[in-house]
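Q: Could you fold this chain for me?
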Amino acid sequence: MTQYTDAVEYQRRKMAVEKWSGQIEYILGQDGYVEKAYNSGLVTREFRDGTFVVVSEEKPMAELLIEAPGNV
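A: Sure. Below is the predicted structure, expressed as structure tokens.
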């Protein structure tokens, strides 16, 4: 049964990183917009008039697995 140990650990790490990446790193409100940055690298801005802009895209999962803190 130990032949699957690495696969199971990889899946556990991947699930933990997916959960971590969805958490907000910071929220900034200024000049008529609210900016939210997530641990995944996604940064969005929502303006007063309701428009929504993606400032930066999410990083790929392979990159997040490398960058995420070890305790995730």
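A (continued): Residues 5-21 form the longest helix (17 residues).
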